[in-house]
Amino acid sequence: MSAPTHAPSPAGPSGRRRAAAGSGADARLHWWALALPALAFGLLLLLLAGAGSGEAHAAPAENSSLVQVTEQLLRAVG
Description:
Blueprint: H1 31-50, H2 65-77
């Protein structure tokens, strides 16, 4: 004997099914839910591009290009 996979949802006053708050087509993402993964992906891509030589060496005393790009991104966002 198999069990049902889900119970039917209660009907509203108009006879239509009520959707749970924040589910289905009514669900909306916050701006940071898309911005943070995109920012993380971009920073990881910059890290990989900067490590192309494969050799470890000391960072110069001046700001590296990665630090400069990160500072520019933080200024643009904040």
